[in-house]
Amino acid sequence: MRFLYTRFSQRSILLSSILLTQLVCLLAAIILFDYWLTDQFVEVIQQRIQRNSDKLADELAKTITLLGMESIAEGTKGRETLDYLIEGMDVPGVGYVVVYSLDSGELIGLDEENMTQRQIKEIEEIADRYVSSEDMSYPHPNYVIAIRPLPTFRAAVIVFQDERYLQSRVDLITDRMKNIGMVVTVAIISVSAFFTLLIFSRYEHELDAINSSLEHKVHERTNALIRSRDAVIFGLAKLAESRDDQTGQHLERICHYVKILARDYQDKNGQVCGLDLEIFAETAALHDIGKVAVPDAILLKPGKLTREERREIELHPGIGGDTLMAIKRKWGDDPFLITASQIAYAHHERWDGSGYPFGLAGEHIPLPARIAAVADVYDALRTERPYKKSLSHCQAIGYIKEQAGTQFDPNIVKILMRNEKEFERVADTVPDERDSF
After folding, report:
1. CA atoms of 286 and 304, how far apart (whole Å)
2. Global pTM value
């Protein structure tokens, strides 16, 4: 379930990331398009309003000229006609038409009832600024302006088109475009999510099949390599043991004893060395592979060894450990080989520091070696040799108990005491016969 949850979470994160990226890109495109579209609309509408304002100004100036009015002063017939003409002008949006008299400064046709004081003031400032200076370029932030002179009356027609109306029209159009863009975005994201999910599903099944196949092949190859390694290493161990005709099933029993001790230790203290219990027990079979280098005359001698012969045979832990470390250097860091080399090096060390080859003491002796030492001595005591008889189970247990704290780790001896019945069962059911290991 944890694997499935992790896999689902990874898939969800990946899919969400893709969709979020697409959404960000679409929104960025919509924002940029909105800016571009707004600029285009502003330019187009502004030009249209300017053309309309110019047209209105031209029409009014032309009409006034054609009517041949004598005066547009207050109270004249010409003024009445002019007011009528201005009232009839159709200015779209927020627009105004006035005739500005240069002589009197009057704005004829000013719709003061429907205009704010700010608008009136702005128009008065524009009229005074542009008409009096006869400046026909009319930049202004709030209005589109068209001016046509009336030389006969020393006046000018001015058409004002408020650009706030322009902005409102642009906003109206762009808001609609934004709404359409959001709908399109949602539609694109939905379709994209659907097809992305389909693509994921398709290739995910293919990747699962490929990964499963690769994992199976790697697993098979790894197991084959491990089996090959174990076969070679155990072949070395068996070669060393086969030189002693009396050892029989010593390796198999050692593995059983070590497994019993390690299982009890593991139940109370955790794993011995990070290895599976079965694999850890197998490492003990390699404890005496260094005996391959011991001459037969010494290894098979039925009597007591001389001091020189004893020094010769005490070299076998170092030889065995060096051999396993050489294999480790070829294989790389391997917990099996590291543990096996610890046992090979230190299974003859003593708790009080009087052992060999390094004279290690107490917990400086690796734990796997302390466990193997108890198992090895118990089996040696229970096995008959040309130079000694075998001891009973009780005698062997009694000896090991006496040596607790001197030769053996007291805690490992306590574990043996708790499991001595299992040791006795193994000794009775795996006798010294020349069966294959």
Report:
1. 25
2. 0.53
Q: Are 97 and 89 in contact (CB under 8 A)?
A: yes
Return the structure tokens found at 224. 């084959």
Question: What distance in Å separates the CA atoms of residue 23 and residue 184, rounded to the nearest whole number?
Answer: 11
Q: Is the peptide bond before 357 cis (omega within 30 degrees of 0)?
A: yes
* 168-211 confidence digits (pLDDT tens): 666 666 666 667 766 776 777 677 767 776 776 666 667 677 77
Q: Residue 50 belongs to what domain range?
A: 14-168
Residues facing residue 148 across a β-bridge: 157
Same domain? For 253 and 145 the reply is no
CA distance 77 to 328: 121
Q: Please report, for the domain that includes residue 287, its CATH number.
A: 1.10.3210.10
Beta carbons of 56 and 91 less than 8 angstroms apart: yes
Side by side, which strands form the sheet with 155-162? Answer: 107-108, 95-101, 155-162, 143-150
What is the identity of the amino acid at 381? L
Q: For the chain, how many structural domains are there in total? A: 2
Alpha-carbon distances of 234 from 125, 169, 255, 324, rounded to whole Å: 109, 91, 12, 11
Q: What's the pLDDT score for residue 375?
A: 95
The band of 14, judged by pLDDT with boundaries at 50, 70 and 90, is: low
Degrees, nearest 5: CA angle 357-359-364: 115
Domain CATH code at residue 60? 3.30.450
Long-range contacts of 269-274 (CB under 8 A, 24+ apart): 272/367, 272/368, 272/371, 273/335, 273/338, 273/339, 273/342, 273/367, 273/368, 274/335
Asked whether residue 286 falls in the same domain as residue 371, the answer is yes
285 contact partners, CB below 8 Å, separation of at least 6: 234, 237, 251, 254, 255, 437
Partners of 100 in the beta sheet?
107, 156
Domain end residue (candidates: 151, 168, 185): 168
CA gap 217, 223 in Å, rounded: 10
More confident residue, 253 or 334: 253
What does DSSP say about strands 143-150 and 155-162: parallel, antiparallel, or unpaired? antiparallel
Element (H, E) at 57: helix 2-67
* 270 and 158 in a common domain: no
Tell me if 44 is assigned to some domain: yes
Residue 237 in tokens: 């161990």
User: Hunting for tokens 């009014």 — which residue is that?
Assistant: 60
- Residue 370 is assigned to a structural domain of this protein: yes
Q: Does 364 lie in the same domain as 248?
A: yes
How many CB atoms sit inside 10 A of residue 185's CB? Answer: 16
